[in-house]
Specification:
The protein has 373 residues and is of the alpha/beta class. It has 2 domains: 52 residues; 305 residues, SGNH hydrolase (Rossmann fold), CATH 3.40.50. It contains 13 helices and 12 strands. The N and C termini lie far apart (90 Å).
Length: 373
């Protein structure tokens, strides 16, 4: 083939070759864009599901018996979760934040009167008692930190012993194992905490409340599971989750005394049982936490309110700690190195929920538990 013929041949084929090349490039580029978009959409959808629907990560937190009534403020079904926050979709809650417009002291001042048989007269006092393990203690700690005031004092040991001291010393102290009382010098407010990680002291405390031996609480917040998981670790490891939780089930069942129900109702005493938060996966017996929460939801009597709305927030906290390890010892907002507790950054939200439930329940408002728009 002559050079002229070759040149003519290339001239004739070039347009066709260029078109095919362009089409091929377009197809490859379109395929690449499609794959990239699909991958991005898949990741975004997955992240959105894990982030916004964290409460569905562990199905068992929604397995609360249908016959049980949990108020909207404490039920996980009423919240939209995200960015370590929970927005109630069932009702609008009061603001008990750090710059609170609604103060717990107003709640205490308006609390109904009760009869004190020891003094032979009626008195008005908002008495909230916290009983349980370190998770309940942290909740109590955040509450009294929020109420920090020169008019708040505390003492340890018992109701009738010990000197009343300034609050700034309590905030630096460890009060594990010792009952702590915090009161306001001018408002009728009393907040107590009793260390009882297995709730072993609850029967005696209940007897004191019902027999007027001590100032009966208007609200009792309790919780216990973490120490039970440690106590039954060998059973869990060698036999199984259900078998390990059987001891817990038997004990929780024994706490329900039908004879006390009527007295508790007459005293308008509200009892809240806080379910155990989800903890980092490396914690011992972590996979058994849902079993204990389910048992508490099933076994506790209907008069006891099961508090489940904190669990999705703990999931978000654990996820954030996995993304970025944070530790702020002074404020305790972040405690990512602590595999047994959540940081105060989410416990602050727990206190918001509790204040809304507690104050509205005690005051017996027309719209119980929350303010509807």
């Amino acid at each position: 083939m002559s050079p002229k013929t070759i040149q003519l041949y290339l001239y004739c084929k070039m347009p066709y070759t260029t078109t095919v090349f362009k089409m091929t490039c377009v197809i490859i580029l379109a395929a690449a864009v499609y794959l990239q978009c699909s991958l991005w959409l898949k990741l975004a959808t997955r992240e959105n599901y894990e982030y916004r629907n964290t409460k569905q990560k562990r199905v068992s937190i929604s397995n609360i018996p249908m016959g049980r009534h949990t108020p909207p403020v404490l039920s996980n079904h009423c919240y939209r979760y995200g960015k370590l926050a929970a927005v109630n979709q069932c009702c609008r809650m009061y603001d008990y934040g750090i710059n609170n417009r609604q103060n717990i002291l107003e709640c205490a001042a308006r609390s109904p009167a009760w009869f004190d048989s020891n003094r032979g007269l009626k008195t008005s006092k908002l008495h909230w008692m916290f009983v349980g393990d370190s998770h309940i203690r942290n909740l109590y700690d955040v509450l009294i930190r929020r109420l920090k005031s020169p008019l708040l004092v505390y003492r340890k040991k018992s109701y009738r012993e010990g000197l009343w001291r300034k609050m700034d010393t309590l905030l630096l102290a460890k009060y594990q194992g010792i009952p702590v009382l915090v009161k306001h010098l001018k408002a009728p407010l009393l907040l107590t905490f009793t260390w009882s990680p297995l709730l072993e002291l609850l029967p005696n405390l209940t007897k004191e409340w019902l027999n007027d031996e001590e100032t009966p609480p208007t609200l009792v917040v309790m919780g216990s599971a973490l120490h039970w998981t440690h106590k039954t670790w060998d059973i869990y490891k060698n036999i199984g989750a259900e078998e390990a939780a059987e001891l817990y089930k038997e004990y929780i069942s024994s706490l329900s005394d039908p004879a006390n129900k009527k007295k508790l109702i007459q005293r308008r005493m509200s009892v809240v049982f806080k379910l155990l938060d989800h903890l980092p996966a490396s914690s011992n017996n972590i996979t058994n936490i849902d079993t204990y929460n389910r048992i508490a939801s099933e076994v506790l009597p209907a008069e006891v309110v099961v508090w489940s709305s904190t669990i999705p927030l703990s999931d978000l906290y654990v996820k954030e700690c996995e993304r970025k390890k944070r530790d702020t010892p002074e404020t305790k907002l972040w405690r990512c190195k602590d595999e047994k507790h959540t940081g105060y950054v989410v416990i602050q939200r727990y206190v918001d929920m509790l204040l809304n439930y507690g104050c509205n329940h005690i005051l017996n408002l027309e719209s119980p538990y929350c303010r509807h728009e």
